[in-house]
């Protein structure tokens, strides 16, 4: 997830955040289980400010030392492109540059990182304590209207694609768009889903509209994922989070809902502020369009964002907000259909106090243990369920 105002340099400082204080039992399970986080925004952050993530990098939420401290095994690196880049025709270039950044991390530290292209390679590649990186594309904009680009992205290691982001695109309507263009998937979007099935790229239904999710489930032949969504039950009216109805439909088809950590998804007040931001932003853009049409100077978007951020501070949120989401999802759709997609480095540090970075997965494990989840079920939530879906999608493509 990337908010425009998240790029203003207003992220919280991570330098003073202590190491996870989880129990020994939680630490052991976190390091023994396979942890798969399906949404970490490191690549786009590297383009705005380069850091060597193979060493300790306090200004970021993902780096190798803290990933090992937290027990992270597989990190889906978000290859994010914005609606503005889509409109400018630069999304394809931006996406490939971010994939290059992921490959550069591996090239610089082959003893610490490796690219994971298939679950079948996981055990071999993680030997020696490597953290495995898999590109997951956030926004289908880079393919433009050229279906053949999907195969090129698959060849570069992309293993899921979020069909749209914060605006309608050629593929699907966005959950954030006030005016939907297609009423779900576009005709081209249906072709995209079918081609992703054929290539073995997981379809990600986070960010898209409810009708688009329904269309995806009608078209797809394999299970789908929601790579980083919250449960709408806790944030009524927030279409960006998945409804009970659609979560059940995703699970019925064998898919998995990867639950997000960001405050804007798990805290009702923060979610309400997020919805209000997109409404205010749309009005601001309309006003600027009128000013431009009249030949008058337009207002500063940076100033608008800074003013909004100051007027809507992120409320302090604790890990219980994430645990409540997991408990609810497990009861609603079953433990075999729940996972995690943190959104680290994508929400400007707006995270629960106890989940500030990839070092903190043991805190989540301890919370789940205290709430009565068995270690076997926790292993499923941490990564087992996602790996099952990925394997199914891959096998179907090979057939």
Description:
The protein is an alpha/beta fold and 399 residues long. The chain has a single domain, classed as Metal-dependent hydrolases (TIM Barrel, Alpha-Beta Barrel). 45% of the residues lie in helices and 11% in strands. It has 16 helices and nine strands. The protein has helices spanning 24-32, 42-48, 64-70, 83-88, 91-108, 122-125, 149-155, 187-199, 210-219, 244-252, 263-266, 268-293, 301-311, 320-333, 361-370, 375-398; strands at residues 35-40, 72-80, 113-115, 131-138, 160-162, 202-204, 225-229, 256-259, 338-340. The strands form two sheets. Strands 1, 2, 3, 4, 5 and 6 form a six-stranded parallel beta sheet that branches. It has a three-stranded parallel beta sheet with strand order 7-8-9. It is globular and about 65 Å long. The two termini are 33 Å apart. Residues 4-17 have low confidence and may be disordered.
- CATH topology name, in short, is TIM Barrel
How many separate structural domains?
A: 1
The largest β sheet comes out as: 6 strands, parallel
Please tell me the overall pLDDT. Answer: 94
Count of beta strands? 9
CATH class: Alpha Beta
Share of residues in strands? 5-15%
Spans of at least 5 consecutive residues whose pLDDT stays below 50 are 4-17
Q: Quickly count the helices.
A: 16
Please state the CA-atom Rg, rounded to the nearest Å.
Answer: 20 Å
Shape: globular
Task: Estimate the helix proportion, in percent.
Answer: 40-55%
């Amino acid at each position: 997830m990337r908010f425009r105002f998240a790029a203003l340099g207003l992220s919280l400082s991570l330098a003073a955040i202590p190491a996870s204080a989880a129990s020994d039992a939680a630490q052991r399970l976190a390091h023994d289980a396979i942890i798969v986080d399906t949404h970490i925004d490191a690549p786009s952050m590297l383009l705005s400010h380069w850091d060597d993530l193979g060493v300790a990098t306090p200004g970021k939420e993902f780096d190798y030392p803290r990933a090992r401290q937290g027990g992270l095994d597989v990190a889906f690196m978000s290859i994010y492109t914005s609606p503005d880049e889509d409109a400018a025709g630069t999304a394809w270039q931006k996406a490939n540059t971010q994939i290059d950044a992921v490959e550069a991390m591996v090239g610089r530290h082959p003893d610490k990182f490796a690219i994971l292209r298939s679950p079948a390679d996981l055990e071999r590649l993680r030997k020696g304590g490597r953290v495995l990186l898999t590109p997951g594309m956030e926004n289908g904009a880079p393919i433009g209207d050229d279906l053949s680009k999907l195969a090129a992205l698959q060849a570069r290691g992309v293993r899921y694609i979020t069909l749209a982001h914060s605006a309608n695109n050629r593929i699907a309507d966005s959950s954030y768009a006030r005016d939907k263009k297609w009423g779900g998937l576009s005709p081209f979007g249906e072709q995209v889903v079918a081609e992703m099935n054929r290539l073995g790229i997981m379809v990600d239904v986070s960010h898209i509209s409810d009708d688009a999710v329904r269309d995806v489930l009608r078209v797809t032949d394999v299970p789908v994922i929601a790579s980083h969504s919250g449960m709408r039950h806790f944030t009524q009216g927030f279409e960006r989070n998945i409804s009970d109805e659609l979560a059940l439909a995703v699970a019925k088809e064998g898919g998995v809902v990867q639950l997000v950590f960001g405050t804007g998804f798990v805290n009702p007040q923060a979610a309400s502020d997020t919805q209000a931001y997109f409404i205010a932003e749309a009005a601001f853009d309309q006003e600027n369009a009128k000013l431009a049409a009249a030949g008058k100077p337009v207002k500063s978007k940076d100033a608008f964002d800074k003013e909004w951020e100051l007027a809507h501070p992120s409320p302090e949120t604790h890990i219980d907000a994430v645990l409540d989401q997991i408990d609810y999802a497990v009861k609603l759709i079953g433990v075999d259909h729940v996972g995690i997609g943190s959104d680290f480095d994508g929400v400007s540090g707006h995270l629960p106090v106890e989940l500030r970075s990839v070092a903190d997965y043991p805190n989540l494990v301890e919370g789940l243990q205290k709430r009565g989840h068995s270690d076997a079920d926790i292993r499923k939530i941490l990564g087992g369920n996602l790996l099952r879906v990925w394997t199914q999608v891959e096998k179907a493509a090979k057939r």
